């Protein structure tokens, strides 16, 4: 069965270009030209990935993403003509997994889509039973069903936040530099853009830590990187 993607873009020329390219790459593409239509189509069908523009009529992309994140951890790639750290921080903070700026190459877009789907579907692949659950303090991480509990209450994480937590949970006491984290989770070379990692780390800590400013799980080693301390 072909992977189905929801493409939300109000610019007809960009929508047609992206849709045509992804179809040639073997995807099924469902399109929406505004936020209201995007929400409607999301509720009517099943998708493996969403490409979402920020600036749209009726309901903007950030509001659409917020609505989807309350219901799903599906990977979301944001598109925007604004290449600023503020836009990235806002978008990623609301739950985007990746970000691409216009104008972009179709090769890069396709690569990001494929990497996002590959990372997401990895968690539903068969694994050894002993690897299914990881217990760290009051956290329980189900690596098969993509679920995290804290004190027996489910924590809603985006796919990228889950990847980040799983990386540290399966490598207790190992130090990861920001470059290593980016290469492992984004499948591409790190060019010093710390904002993406910082935002995801902050959002993850806000969800799993009692005091995010004084984390007990993932520690910061200033000037080096991060590690999850396992006693």
Average pLDDT figure: 86
Number of domains: 2
Q: Mind describing the biggest β-sheet?
A: 5 strands, parallel
In CATH, what is the class of the largest domain?
Alpha Beta
Count helical runs.
8
Q: Please, could you describe this protein's structure?
A:
There is one protein chain. The protein is of the alpha/beta class and 231 residues long. It is built from eight helices and eleven strands. The chain has helices at residues 12-24, 35-44, 61-69, 85-94, 106-122, 159-169, 178-186, 194-208, and strands at 4-8, 28-32, 49-53, 76-80, 98-101, 133-136, 139-142, 147-150, 153-155, 218-221, 225-228. The strands form three sheets. The chain has a five-stranded parallel β-sheet with strand order 2-1-3-4-5, with helices on both faces. Helix 6 crosses helix 8 (194-208). The radius of gyration is 18 Å and the shape is globular. The model is unreliable at 124-130 (pLDDT under 50).
Write the layout of secondary structure elements.
Elements: E1 4-8, H1 12-24, E2 28-32, H2 35-44, E3 49-53, H3 61-69, E4 76-80, H4 85-94, E5 98-101, H5 106-122, E6 133-136, E7 139-142, E8 147-150, E9 153-155, H6 159-169, H7 178-186, H8 194-208, E10 218-221, E11 225-228
Parallel strand pairs: 1-2, 1-3, 3-4, 4-5
Antiparallel strand pairs: 6-7, 7-8, 8-9, 10-11
């Amino acid at each position: 069965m072909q992977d189905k993607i929801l493409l939300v873009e109000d610019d007809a020329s960009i929508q047609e270009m992206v849709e045509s390219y992804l179809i040639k790459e073997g995807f099924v593409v469902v399109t929406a030209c505004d936020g209201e239509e995007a929400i409607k189509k999301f509720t009517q069908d099943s998708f493996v990935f969403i490409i979402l523009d920020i600036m749209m009529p009726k309901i903007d992309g950030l509001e659409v993403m917020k609505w989807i994140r309350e219901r799903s951890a599906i990977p979301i790639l944001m598109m925007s003509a604004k290449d600023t750290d503020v836009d990235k921080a806002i978008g990623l903070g609301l739950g985007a997994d990746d970000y691409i700026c216009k104008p972009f190459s179709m090769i890069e877009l396709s690569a990001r889509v494929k990497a996002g789907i590959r990372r997401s579907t990895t968690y539903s692949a068969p694994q050894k039973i002993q690897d299914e659950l990881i217990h760290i303090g009051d956290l329980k991480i189900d690596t098969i069903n993509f679920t995290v509990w804290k004190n027996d209450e489910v924590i809603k994480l985006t796919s990228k936040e889950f990847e980040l937590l799983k990386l540290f949970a399966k490598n207790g006491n190992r130090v990861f530099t920001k470059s290593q984290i980016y290469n492992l989770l984004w499948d591409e070379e790190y060019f010093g853009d710390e904002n993406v990692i910082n935002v995801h780390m902050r959002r993850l800590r806000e969800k799993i830590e009692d005091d995010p400013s004084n984390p007990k799980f993932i520690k910061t080693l200033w000037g080096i990187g991060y590690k999850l301390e396992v006693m």
